[in-house]
Design a protein that fits this description.
The complex is a heterodimer of chains A (114) and B (113). Chain A is an all-beta fold. In chain A, 0% of the residues lie in helices and 49% in strands. Chain A has no helices and eleven strands. In chain A, strand 4 and strand 5 form a beta hairpin. In chain B, the strands form three sheets. In chain B, strands 2, 5, 6, 10, 11 and 12 form a six-stranded mixed β-sheet that branches. In chain B, strands 3-9-8-7 form a four-stranded antiparallel β-sheet, with no helix packed on it. The radius of gyration of chain B is 13 Å and the shape is globular.
Chain lengths: 114, 113
């Protein structure tokens, strides 16, 4: 299993540009999430999904859109990038089976907005 | 709302020293508690977890006990190694909300030979 994969690893955008961060998992997990990591602030939840077709907002959803058309994929869209969105983005997946609660994280995407 | 607070500032230790990283939480219900570790350039990995009060999670020589009375989940290791150098995150979530973790700010651990 590849686990959770994210592309690209690095990205530089200009203010106002749009882009999509890709996330895929091959573990058949129902739950998928996007977090952003900023220095001194830990990880903060942007959006999450409890299954295909179902998404909800997390702590910091403004400026980001998500959709989940398949179990495997959960892309994160930045509609109009702003310097405040410079961060490292992590996708994660988890499953309710077994009651372990563990979230599996991808390697991250480092985004810089100039 | 829920929150997790970790001890301030980076931690620097010599190899074989004792490690404690403090974690306290504020929660509206009865969460499960986790420690995640992030090695340089990588994503987060689950280190250990505890799902109810007085549970002790352990893995790779690390331990943490879920203390409901003090709302704490401190991470300890008796003898650290250089390979333990990483960022450690305390986090909580609730059963049934598997997609939502609330994280502390992270603690950078550096272990010198």
């Amino acid at each position: 299993n590849a686990g959770v994969t994210q592309t690209p690893k690095f990205q530089v955008l200009k203010t106002g540009q749009s882009m999509t961060l890709q996330c895929a998992q091959d573990m058949n997990h129902e739950y998928m999430s996007w977090y952003r990591q900023d220095p001194g602030m830990g990880l903060r939840l942007i959006h999450y999904s409890v299954g295909a077709g179902i998404t909800d907002q997390g702590e910091v959803p403004n400026g980001y859109n998500v959709s989940r058309s398949t179990t495997e994929d959960f892309p994160l869209r930045l509609l109009s990038a702003a310097p405040s969105q410079t961060s490292v983005y992590f996708c994660a997946s988890s499953s309710s089976s077994g009651g372990t609660y563990e979230q599996y994280f991808g390697p991250g995407t480092r985004l810089t907005v100039t | 709302g829920d929150s997790v607070t970790q001890m301030e500032g980076p931690v620097t230790l010599s190899e074989e020293a004792f490690l404690t990283i403090n974690c306290t939480y504020t929660a509206t219900g009865y969460p499960s508690l986790f420690w995640y570790v992030q090695y340089p350039g990588e994503g987060l990995q689950l280190l250990l977890k505890a799902t109810k009060a007085d549970d002790k999670g352990s893995n790779k020589g690390f331990e943490a006990t879920y203390r409901k009375e003090t709302t704490s989940f401190h991470l300890e290791k008796g003898s650290v190694q250089v390979s333990d150098s990483a960022v450690y995150f305390c986090a909580l979530s609730y059963q049934g909300f598997y997609g939502k973790l609330t994280f502390g700010q992270g603690t950078i651990l550096t272990v010198h030979p």
